[in-house]
Structures are given as structure tokens and as C-alpha cells.
Amino acid sequence: MEKQKNGELSRMFGYAGKFHVLTVLGCVLSGISTILSMLPFVCIWLVIRDLIQAFAAGDISLATGSAHYAWMAVVFAAASILIYYIALNCTHLAAFRTATNMRKSAIHHIVTLPLGYFSQNASGRLRNIIDDNAGLTEGFLAHQLPDLTGAAVMPVAVIILIFLFDWRLGICCLIPMGISVIFLKQMMGGDNAQFMGKYMTALETMNKEAVEYIRGIPVVKVFQQTIYSFKNFHAAIEEYEKFASGYALKCRIPLTGFTVTLNGTFVLLIPVAMFILSGVSGQAAYENVVLDFLFYSLFTPVCATMMNRIMFASEQLMAAKSAVSRVDEILQEKPLKEPEHPLIPADASIVFSDVSFAYPGTKEKALDHISFEVPTGKTVALVGASGSGKSTAASLIPRFYDVQSGSVTIGGVDVRNIEKQELMKRVAFVFQNTCLFKDTLLNNIKAARPDATREEVLKAADEAQCKDIIDRLPDGLDTLVGTGGTYLSGGENQRIALARAILKDAPIIVLDEATAFADAENEHQIQLAFERLTQNKTVMMIAHRLSTIQDADLILVFKEGQIAERGTHEELVALNGIYSSMWKDYQTSIAWKVGKEDEQHD
Ligand SMILES: Nc1ncnc2c1ncn2[C@@H]1O[C@H](COP(=O)(O)OP(=O)(O)OP(=O)(O)O)[C@@H](O)[C@H]1O
């Protein structure tokens, strides 16, 4: 993976676009607000000094400046709050824009990636990276970054105040701050600097496994299992717990040191003040030391608060840096390579020439030197045991993956030399699991061809035998389906998928186990829809139900990534090999089923 040249912060600014100016402005304002927030302490000190001096002189009316200083304190405090409010508005605006742009960039990029990327990266993980990480960055830029800038101004202000009042007491304030930085470094530096990346990976894995677990809840319920049967989820929780508690344990001592040091400033301040007092003589000098001590007493908690803010902001900075890197990881994934000189296929024939393919990250070949031809308008059926490579072969036609050796051609052109849009126009793919978006049925079917009219959608739905579904739904074609919408059965979902494919009217149809989830009634309707869909098309079809493929022009029997047998139904039955025994098994199962039904009718 290409290494990012710029730091994470500048990449965050990159996402903000022109809005990054607002982040900078917000940080500057936050710094000004911090300085202003210290001035009331100076004013209060001046009020106290005025009062003490007047009191010592025995005439309280001499404290003429007190009211003035008190008002100044109010004005500075109000100005500090107002400026901080404006600062946060600026940083929030920029943060919202940054997070939105991060999400948009990732989502726009993701749709350009080969489909195979999604089988390697679970949806739970991707959602976590895109959504949660953008949220994390938003929180950091909106709140912690301006606080961090404000906090960075603090030591400078303390140093100035050291010279303004008593440098010895000022140093007493600075020493704990300095020591607390050492503890802070222990918490955030060394091995712990890598912690946030590992922690977020553990969190992503846990999210991914949680999604898998929730998807599998029906299995858990039906088979009376417990969470422990989902070992991966359990392991992910334990891994997460290991990181979280491991980090907490590592931070135990430095965090205690940090808190104690910051809150223990008085341990230094009081003896040093007493030491200074022992060295002065005269009431005025005595009063001055007490007044200076009072100032630092007031000021110490402000230093502690600031250092705490720095600590939380530093932690958030680690998280935000890691978040940006994760989103960048997605953006660096290579999109599907577009051909430099795209070619147009002459027809809808498909040719696999000596194709071999192994899934990314695996050594085992899912397809091993596969060759076959499907002339335009003909049907090829792929059969074979589970895991024999049928779906893999089908997925190479629309370039869900690219072959590693050999070639897949459509109309004489290698699919890698066909423009993505052109390829998608030519191939309609009906998946094993049909995904319906949370939208109306109309829009779900229209996804295949967004410019289709309502009439065209209705015609396609009718041809896909969806009329009964539309009539049954409360708002017909305008009924909301998909997650949270009206429920459709597996077979009904597949008929909708077939309606989509009919509407698309692509010359090549790839059907992946289109009847797998259907009951008898649905299967009959799917069969009718399928016949309509495949008229005059080149068809590649994967089916376990041998009844649906007897008329195929070519049947390929897959075994461990290779084609073990090929021919028409009759030829393969006569061959007395794998297909013939599959066919016998199928015949037996049909006979058994018919026998059962007869028994029930008797
Ligand atoms: N995304 C993937 N990553 C890694 N290996 C995979 C992936 N998808 C499939 N495989 C492996 O590739 C081989 C072929 O799988 P494929 O899904 O093509 O078989 P299939 O014949 O279609 O099986 P089924 O009938 O069960 O769908 C199997 O060993 C499978 O485990």
C-alpha cells in the first residue's frame, strides 16, 4: 500500500476543503479565549490587593479600583465565553464538512471497487470505517482540536504570569505541569502510540462479528445455541476486552501520577510561599507575598483543568489520526481497472480460455485451467458439488474478479478491454441472495434501468410473474419493501430480481441458483419468468435442481475447480459418470417425493 506523504492532520484539512480555514480560525479564537479566560484571575487578584491595602490602611473607601477591576473580570470572562462560542461554531462547521466529505469520498470510491472487495471486507467493518471513523474525526475537529490549541497557549501564559508576579511561585505551578507531561508521554508514547490502531482494529472486528452474529440469530434460536457457538464473535469480544483492559492497566501508574501531580501543586506552593515569607520583612512586602500566593492558589486549578483537557484531546488525536488512516486505506484500494483502448464486443458469445483463478489471500485455485464456449443465444448450465467453482466462474463474466491467467471474452473481446458501463449493459446477474433496497417496489425494479417508465416496469414485473405480489401489496408498486418495509418471501424476492433482469434486457444473463429458495408454487412462477427472461439470450446458469437444466445446450460438471464432464443432458447421462449419478439421485428424490404425496392423498 502506498505510504501517505502528508500527516494525518493535513489530510483531515484536505477533506475539509476550503472549510479548513474555519478550523484554523476556530483554533486561533480558542487560543485567544484561553488567554482572556486567565485575565479575570488577574483582575480578581487586583480586587483582592486593592481591598487588602485599603483594609490595612484602615479606610475601605481607598479601595477605589476594586469595582473597576471586578467589572473588568466580568468583561474578560464574558468575552472569553463569547469567543470560545464563536470558535466552536467555526470548528463545528468545518468538522461537519470534513466528516461529510470523508464519508462521501469513501462511498464514491467504494462503488468503483471490484465486487470481490466486498466479499473480502465484511459490511460491518466497512460501515465502521466509513461511518464511525468519520464521526470520530468530526468530534476531534469540532471539540478537541480547539481545546488542544487553547491548552497549548496555557504554558506560554503561565510563563508570562511568572514574570508578572512572583517567578518562584510561578515555577511551583510549572513544575507539576512539566512532570504531568512526562506521565502523559508514558500514556500516549512508546508502544501505547500503536495502541489506538490496534484498539480500532479490534473494535472493527468485533463490529463485523456482531453483524454476522445478528444475521445468524435465527440459527442460534432454532438450534438452541448460545453466543459461545459463535466462536468468532466471542473471540472478537475477548480480543477487544484484552486491548481495552490491557491499555487501562498500562495507564494505571502514569494516570495516577498525572492526576496526583496536577492536583498536588499546593504541596510545592505552600512551603515555597512560607520560605519566601520567612525572607521578607515589613508589612507591605508581607502583603505582597500573600497576594501573590493568593493569585497562584486561584490559578493552580486552571492549570490542572487545562492539562486534563490536553490529556483527553491527545487521546482523541490518536483516535482521529488512526480514523483518517483507515478511511485512506479504503481510498487507496485500486478501483476496477478501466481499459485504455476499450473495445465493443461483436456479439453475446462467451468464451473461457484456459482460465485459472485463486481468491485474493488464498493459495488454492478456485478455478484451474477452465475452457469452454457459449455461442450467442445458447444456454450453458454449471453443475457440481458445493465449492466446486461454479459461482466463481460466473463471477468472472461481469468482472467481480479478474482472472489471474487465461481470459474471459464476450463477443471476442476480453472483458478487461470492455468499458465498465458497456460490460454492465451487456450482462444481467441474478444473485443467489437478492438484495432489495429500502425503497418502493417500483424503484427496486427500476434499479436495473433508472430511466424506465412506470409502464415498462409494470410490463417487466408482469412478465416476471410478479402480478400477484403487486396486487397483494397495500400500495402496489409504490409499497415500501426491503429492510423495515413490507416482507417478501425468498421466492418472491427472486421474482423481483428476475423482473429487474427482464427490465434491463441485457443480451447475457447469469443466473446463480435462482430457484434455490423457492417453494413448489414459486418455483413454477420463477420457471415461467426465467423462460421469458432467457428468450434469445446467452445464458449461464448455476442450478442444483437438474430439472431446470435438461434443455441447456451445454452442461458443465465442475469438480474441484475443473470441468470434469461436459455435454448435453443426454450425452452426460449416457456417459455414466458424475452427472449420470447426480441425475439418478435426482430421479430417486423425485420418485420419493411423489410417493410421499400419493400417500398423503390416499
Ligand atoms: N470470497 C472468497 N474468498 C475465498 N475463497 C472463496 C471465496 N468464495 C469462494 N471461495 C472458495 O472458492 C471455491 C469455489 O467456490 P464457489 O463459490 O465458486 O463454489 P460453488 O460451486 O459455486 O459452490 P456453491 O454451489 O456452494 O455455491 C471454494 O473452495 C470456496 O471455499
From TrEMBL:
Domain of life: Bacteria
Subcellular location as annotated: Cell membrane
Alphabetized InterPro entries for the sequence: AAA+_ATPase, ABC1_TM_dom, ABC1_TM_sf, ABC_transporter-like_ATP-bd, P-loop_NTPase, Type_1_exporter
Membrane-spanning segments: 20-48, 69-87, 156-184, 260-281, 293-312
One Pfam family here: ABC_membrane
Membrane topology type: Multi-pass membrane protein
An example molecular function term from Gene Ontology annotations: ATP binding
Domain ABC transmembrane type-1: 24-319
Sequence ranges assigned to domain ABC transporter in this UniProt record: 350-585
UniProt keywords, alphabetically: ATP-binding, Membrane, Nucleotide-binding, Transmembrane, Transmembrane helix
Listed name of the protein: ABC transporter ATP-binding protein
Native species: Blautia parvula
